[in-house]
Write a structure and sequence with these properties.
The chain is of the alpha+beta class and about 70 residues long. The protein has one helix and four strands. The protein has a four-stranded antiparallel sheet with strand order 1-2-3-4. The longest helix is centred in the last third of the chain and has 12 residues.
């Protein structure tokens, strides 16, 4: 996959820890982080949408708490 297939999130800063997104077709979304560019998460638009809506609604706030 070439560098021009990835788009940097507008919420990422100019330093490290930038999120990149690629949508090679209508059924696939790929995510990677600038510090680990060889690690790519693959999902569907529907599943990513559910994750984003859950995060915005605060439904994931309890994760990581003891």
């Amino acid at each position: 996959m070439s560098a021009h297939d990835w788009r940097k999130s507008s919420y990422s800063s100019e330093g490290n820890a930038c999120l990149y997104v690629s949508a090679p077709d209508n059924a696939t979304i790929r995510l990677r982080e600038s510090d680990e560019p060889d690690t790519i998460l693959t999902t569907t638009p529907r599943a990513l949408g559910r994750l984003i809506r859950s995060a915005k609604a605060g439904q994931l706030d309890r994760l990581g708490k003891a």
